[in-house]
Each structure stands twice: as C-alpha cells, then as structure tokens.
C-alpha cells in the first residue's frame, strides 16, 4: 500500500504536471530571464512579481496628490476619516477599485502615489465617486 500511495502521489504532483509546468517555466524564463531574478530571495521575488500585501494606510494618505482640493477640505477630511475606519478587506477593495489591483507595486508605498480630484459636477449630490485606473485618479464629488 505504501508503494502504491508513493507512486500515486508522485504521479499526481510530479509526472502529471511535468509538461504543463515545463511550458510555464519556458514562458516565464522568456519574460524573466534566470540571470535577472536569481539575485532575489524567494520572498523578494514574490514581492516584485505580485506586489506588497502588507500596507501602511497612513503612508498611502501622505502620498496623495490633490486636484481642486486641499488636504484640509471637509470632503477630504471626511473621506480619510471614513477610509481609516474601514476593515482591511474593504481598504484593499478600495485599492482594487482605484488601481485594478489590491496590491501595491514592488517598490512600495514610498513610491506609490494616487490622485484625488474634484470632477466639478454641477450637482455633486447626484454624483458618485469613480476612478480612472490607468492614471490612478479618484474623482470624488464634493
């Protein structure tokens, strides 16, 4: 029985995926040559490829650029007050809404900026916030 289980596990986890894994590895190495990524530790490579998962939300707030707003405007103060009360999962959902990803790129929050702008709509009470993920702008009606 032990030999059967060992052979079955070997087939399931090694032999049955050998060809798809070789195809994946060939494509991966084409886009990310070995000589470039061998300098990273596994944890560092994961951050480079997937981005940061642990975030300092107050640091995110410090790197915002405002358009037609000032940091002390009531709308901005209310936004950050509500944002910081959100659970972690909702904050990551906001990040995905803003950027298309719930992670920050590999360089980290120190180099990540986004913009909050006033869309200058005639009746802001009938508008809702929306985001431009390409330019990382949150359009926040007053």
Automatic annotation (TrEMBL):
PROSITE patterns: HECT
One Pfam family linked to the record: HECT
Keyword Acyltransferase on entry: no
Catalytic activity: S-ubiquitinyl-[E2 ubiquitin-conjugating enzyme]-L-cysteine + [acceptor protein]-L-lysine = [E2 ubiquitin-conjugating enzyme]-L-cysteine + N(6)-ubiquitinyl-[acceptor protein]-L-lysine
Family matches, as InterPro entries: E3A/B/C-like (IPR044611), HECT_dom (IPR000569), Hect_E3_ubiquitin_ligase (IPR035983)
Name this polypeptide is given: HECT-type E3 ubiquitin transferase
EC assignment: 2.3.2.26
Gene3D superfamilies, per the entry: Hect, E3 ligase catalytic domain, Hect, E3 ligase catalytic domains
Broad EC category: transferase
A GO molecular function held by the record: ligase activity
Domain HECT, chain residue ranges per copy: 1-142
Source species of the chain: Bucorvus abyssinicus
A single GO BP: protein polyubiquitination
UniProt entry keywords in alphabetical sequence: Ligase, Transferase, Ubl conjugation pathway
Enzyme active site: 134 (glycyl thioester intermediate)
């Amino acid at each position: 029985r032990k030999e059967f289980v060992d052979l079955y596990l070997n087939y399931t986890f090694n032999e049955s995926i050998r060809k798809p894994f070789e195809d994946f590895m060939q494509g991966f190495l084409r886009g990310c040559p070995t000589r470039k990524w061998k300098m990273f530790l596994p944890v560092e490579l994961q951050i480079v490829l997937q981005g940061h998962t642990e975030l300092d939300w107050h640091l995110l707030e410090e790197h915002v650029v405002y358009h037609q707003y000032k940091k002390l405007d009531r709308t901005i103060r209310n936004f950050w007050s509500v944002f910081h009360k959100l659970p972690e999962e909702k904050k990551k959902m906001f990040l995905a809404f803003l950027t298309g990803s719930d992670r920050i790129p590999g360089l980290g929050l120190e180099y990540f900026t986004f913009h909050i702008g006033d869309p200058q709509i005639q009746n802001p009470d009938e508008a809702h916030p929306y985001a431009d993920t390409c330019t990382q702008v949150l359009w926040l009606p007053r």
